[in-house]
Amino acid sequence: MLFFISEYLTNKCSYKSNGVIGQLKYLWQEKYFEDQVIQKGNLTKYEYSAYSTYDLHWVSGSFCPKTSGKYKIESRGKPCLYARFNDEQEFKQEGDFCLVGDQYYTITDRYLYANRCYPLLIGTYRKCVAEGLYSNLNDQRLDNNVATLIDCETQDCLPGYYTDTCELQNDADCNGNGEPDYGRTSDGIGCTCKRFDSNIFCEDTSKFHFPEGHRGVQFTSYYNTSRVDALHIYPNFEDLHFSESYSTIELNTILYVPQNTYLEFRLSSSLGAQLYINNELVGGELSDKYECREDDIEVLTTEKKMYNKGNYNIRIVMNSGCAIRDQFVGLEWKFYRWYKNNPPGFEDIPSRYLGTPSN
């Protein structure tokens, strides 16, 4: 009678595809005591040959193709073979007791997705014929050269990849306190945190990106470009008021965008202002430098745009007029990725992301 897999031979990943990458498990089982399943080592390919008579020998894990396409999966055992692919119907076949007979389990033209993992279990026992056990993928030995191996059985994505077909990769920066969330049911936006799980990127919000002495927003006021008549550093863009007259006001900062994300900006100002990002005019208009009027607050809202993680030069320019009233400027953003792409509204830009220019 051919051996059967038992409930004791279990090797499921405990969480998604969180096994050891690059390895498989070699499991040994006493033929007449099915509850005695022992892991006797690790393998780097679906192949095993040095086994003892009558005991059951298993190669267990998953493989994750490196490219999408149609594949042939072939397993071979001598003189008997057990195989199960992708938790589908089990294959069992044995030859005559002491005859050298190859047993094959073959799947052809199966479309497999890159970075999506497929569990494969193969096993045999020796009788009196000392031959081996292996699996091939498209006629090549199934190892880490042709696929990524994992030492537990999973149908999920490789770590970092998401969508049902595992075609996208989560590019989240988890600040060293977690790992990018992944999996076939993941939205691929945030992180799985080990520390600082108060936000989805495991960020210690008490830390500043820029060093002390180089933080904040630099305010300058000048009557001509050859001289600076006033200079001040503000911690952020929250509710800035000035009492300048007949001068040009500039606010300069380096904005650190901590994740690849969509952003919108909202610039509120009295008398009008212009917003530049990396020296490109995003929008806004200037009033006459010598104008005396009391206008309502003008609001500029930028279009939703993708920004890659990194530093951006922000410059706001406005004319003060005759100072019949104080000038006002405020800059806010919508950080889409923080809220899984559904932000509640515009918010103040955190001080920890603002740095003063070096010149």
| Rounded radius of gyration (Å) | 32 Å
CATH superfamily of the largest domain: Galactose-binding domain-like
User: Biggest sheet, open or closed, and with what strands and sense?
Assistant: 7 strands, antiparallel
Q: How much of the residues is beta strand, in percent? A: 35-45%
- CATH architecture type of the largest domain: Sandwich
Instruction: Kindly provide the name of the CATH class of the largest domain.
Output: Mainly Beta
Order of helices and strands: EEEEEEEEEEEEEEEEEEEEEEEEEEEEE
Number of domains: 3
Shape from CA axes?
A: rod-shaped
**Would you report the number of β strands?**
29
- Could you report the average pLDDT, rounded to the nearest whole number? 90
Distance between the termini: 83 Å
CATH topology of the largest domain: Jelly Rolls
Helix content: under 10%
What's the number of helices? Answer: 0
Low-confidence stretches: none
Computed structural class: mainly beta
Question: How would you describe what is shown here?
Answer:
This protein is mostly beta strands and 359 residues long. It folds into 3 domains: 24-150, Sandwich (Jelly Rolls); 161-207, no CATH class; 217-355, Galactose-binding domain-like (Jelly Rolls, Sandwich), CATH 2.60.120. The protein is built from no helices and 29 strands. The strands form 6 sheets. Strands 1, 2, 4, 6, 7, 9 and 12 form a 7-stranded antiparallel beta sheet that branches. A hairpin with a 5-residue loop joins strand 13 and strand 14. The radius of gyration is 32 Å and the shape is rod-shaped. The N and C termini lie far apart (83 Å).
